[in-house]
Write a structure and sequence with these properties.
Layout lengths: L1 E2 L5 E3 L7 E3 L6 E10 L2 E10 L6 E2 L7 E2 L8 H4 L2 E3 L14 E7 L5 E10 L6 E7 L2 E7 L6 E7 L7 H12 L3 E6 L13 E2 H13 L3 E11 L1 H12 L3 E7 L17 E3 L2 E2 L8 H10 L8 H4 L5 H7 L10 E6 L7 H14 L6 E6 L17 E3 L6 E3 L4 H22 L4
Parallel strand pairs: 2-10, 13-14, 13-16, 15-18, 16-17, 17-20, 20-21
Antiparallel strand pairs: 1-3, 3-6, 4-5, 4-9, 5-7, 5-8, 9-10, 11-12, 12-14, 18-19, 22-23
Length: 421
């Protein structure tokens, strides 16, 4: 029994064709995928019945039991979940990027095994730390020669470059120059998302435009969560940005996080107008009066029912100098990203915005939509800055499907948005 050829290393967003040949005909075979994440061991399983020719083909067969249901070529990858020490699994590699795939017989005997290193940086991509002009980040440059379109990548309220580093590396692996930019919670920067000057990002755009590997006429900004809010805001502020990609964003500007009584963003030394959620006392009153629905995001949305208030706090997205792609999860439990994104979508419609606008909304998806094939089962965690409990929302399958669908659409949007005239 053997696997069809599988790579020893590939990009994390690459789909694989997992097939086994030479299995006992009409007998069950269980596939397991095991890897490490921080101090956790992640495991997924899927049991199949080999066909009359002794073939198990994950791309065309649904498992009769396991971590996921239905036909899904990459189901073993997104359905990995933490297991306890006494669970039965192959010893995972100490490298968190390496996943070990095994096939076992019905008796539990390991028959074959293959390890795959899933990386963010393709061969030929170079990276360098950026610590100049007051900027903190990492620049990734593709192997392709000549000035390339570039993406300024910003993360969310977690700060640093945790999300942006991986996104920028992947974008560079697809041929774009990409700057993963920290703007707080990094050495030399503010500790929290509080009164961040937009001029900092203006400096980053100027720096990018000066790089010999960058086409200064093809600069895009991409961000997630509060960074998605920021991406829309930067696009509306700096004409040098020619397209915007915003993951689970908001078309409304919000206050600092953690709340400090100040704005998250400033321009020309002045705090930008920002919306505020209901206070705990106001929320309790709204629940008692029946004007708020328990278990909803009405504490975000009730203040925005005042159209004048919402208009003052919304981002003037109609000023963006190019196409816009927004991606949200309908079942986002961290904030109501679909509803908040619709404030931007409505402004685009009302202004007869001349560029392409897309809002991809995914039911059963939560806050963690991004590149595909990573584990989507860990929905709850502690916020790295505030320590608050976080629930990303959605279902593991729903978020995985959203990432699988939106990723190639995002790459197509990026390609079209940066194509030469």
């Amino acid at each position: 029994m053997e696997f069809d050829p599988l790579p020893a290393q590939c990009l994390v967003d690459q789909a694989l064709a997992i097939r086994i040949r030479g299995a006992p005909a009409d007998e069950p075979v269980t596939l397991k995928l095991c890897s490490r994440f921080n101090d956790l061991v992640l495991l997924s399983t899927a049991s199949f019945l080999a066909d009359a020719d002794g073939v198990v083909d994950v791309t065309t067969q649904a498992p009769f039991s396991g971590s996921y249901q239905g036909i899904d070529a990459m189901g073993l990858f997104w359905s990995r979940a933490p297991v306890t020490d006494d669970a039965t699994f192959a010893a995972p590699s100490s490298d968190p990027l390496t996943a070990t795939l095994t096939a076992e017989s019905s008796s539990g005997e390991m028959l074959i095994s293959h390890s795959i290193r899933r990386v963010y940086v393709a061969a030929g991509v170079t990276s360098r730390a950026v610590n100049e002009s007051g900027l903190i980040g990492t620049m990734f440059e593709p192997a392709v020669a000549g000035p390339r379109p570039a993406v300024l990548v910003v993360g969310g309220s977690g700060g640093g470059t945790a999300w942006s580093l991986q996104m920028a590396a992947l974008l560079a692996s697809h041929g774009y120059a990409a700057l993963a930019l920290a703007y707080f919670a990094a050495e030399g920067l503010p500790p929290t998302l509080d009164r961040i000057p937009l001029e900092y990002f203006g400096t980053a755009l100027e720096w990018l435009a000066e790089q010999p590997t960058v086409n200064a006429e093809r600069i895009v900004v991409s961000g997630v969560s509060r960074g998605g809010e920021l991406a829309l805001l930067l696009g509306a502020t700096f004409p040098a940005i020619r397209a915007v990609i915003a993951y689970v964003p908001s078309g409304i500007l919000w206050d600092a996080y953690p709340t400090s009584g100040h704005a998250a963003w400033t321009l020309d030394g002045k705090e930008l107008p920002h919306a505020q959620t209901l206070t705990y006392a106001e929320w309790d009153t709204a629940l008692a009066e029946g004007t708020a629905r328990p278990g909803t995001f009405d504490w975000y949305l009730i203040p925005l029912r005042d159209e004048d208030y919402a208009a003052k706090m919304s981002i003037p997205v109609e000023k963006i100098n190019g196409p816009v792609l927004m991606i949200s999860g309908v079942d986002d439990a961290l904030w109501p990203s679909t509803e908040l994104t619709e404030f931007a979508a409505q402004r685009f419609k009302q202004s007869s915005f001349p560029h392409d606008v897309q809002h991809l909304r995914y039911r059963s998806a939560g806050h963690s939509i991004a590149w595909p094939n990573g584990p989507t089962t860990m929905l709850k965690s502690k916020h790295p800055v505030s320590g608050e409990d976080m629930d990303m929302g959605g279902t593991p399958e729903g978020t995985a499907r959203a990432s699988q669908d939106s990723w190639p659409r995002m790459l197509a949007f990026l390609r079209d948005a940066t194509a030469s005239d």
